[in-house]
Each structure stands twice: as structure tokens, then as C-alpha cells.
């Protein structure tokens, strides 16, 4: 079993992970987990635990995990947005075909405000991107 285990275990936390070294090289062949550090996904900071001195191999493994984790979280974010678009379409169909007057009364104001807020931000961001491209484009002329 020991040969199949990784050298490190990353216990996911809200902003990163607690990192443990996996050890099966003991007399009982039990899995022991020794906490080495805390890795912060938001700022990339690695905090050794206690008086630990991290090796270059430790730091490289933590950085590899951090890079993969940031990419995974970014992919999850965009997947969530694509699901939100699908859900908006499903909501539209529900409003058009199934919703009762009471149900519509219950959700209409909240939906309209949320959609207005979203539309305002999307339009502003789109304008910022277009203006940014125009400014770059005008410098090339």
C-alpha cells in the first residue's frame, strides 16, 4: 500500500490546504501524516508549521499543487457560470410555461433586480474591453 501513496497529502481548506508528509516507513507500517505547512491559494504563501524547514523538493511539490489547484478553481468558476446561463434559460422556460401567478409574484422583483445588476456590470465590462481595444488599436495607426 505504501508504494501507491503520494509523498504529500493536501487537506483542502477554504483558502488553500494544510500539507502533510505521508510516511509508511515505520515498524507498524501504519500511515502517518506529519503536517508540514499551510498553502494559501489566494496569495501563494507557504507557511511552515512549527519550526519546520522546508526542502526545495517540498517547495516544488507545493508549487506544483498550487498551480494545479488554481487552474482547477478557475475551471470550476467558468463551469459554474455556464451552468448559470443554462439555469437562466430553464428559468425563462419555467416562467413562460409553468409558473403560477403566485410563484411569479414571489420571484419577479428579485429576478429583475439580479438581472438588472448583472446586465449593468456586463455592459460596463464589455465597454471597458472595447474601449481598451480601441485605445490600443488607435496607437497602432
**What is the helix/strand order?**
EEEEHH
Q: Would you tell me the structural class of the helices and strands?
A: alpha+beta
Q: Which blocks of ≥5 consecutive residues have pLDDT under 50?
A: 137-141
Q: Could you state the oligomeric state of the chains shown? A: single chain
Termini separation: 65 Å
H/I helix tally: 2
Q: Quote the beta fraction.
A: 15-25%
Side by side, the strands of the main sheet go: 1-2-3-4
Estimate the global geometry from the Cα principal axes. elongated
Q: Helicity level, as a percent range? A: 55-70%
Q: Can you give the mean pLDDT?
A: 91
If you compute it from the alpha carbons, what radius of gyration comes out, rounded to the nearest whole angstrom? 25 Å
Largest sheet: 4 strands, antiparallel
What is the total tally of β strands? 4
Please give a structural write-up.
With 141 residues, this protein is of the alpha+beta class. Helices cover 58% and strands 18% of the residues. The protein is built from 2 helices and 4 strands, in the order E-E-E-E-H-H. The chain has a 4-stranded antiparallel sheet, with helices on one face. It is elongated and about 70 Å long. The chain starts with 7 loop residues before the first strand and ends with a helix. The model is unreliable at 137-141 (pLDDT under 50).
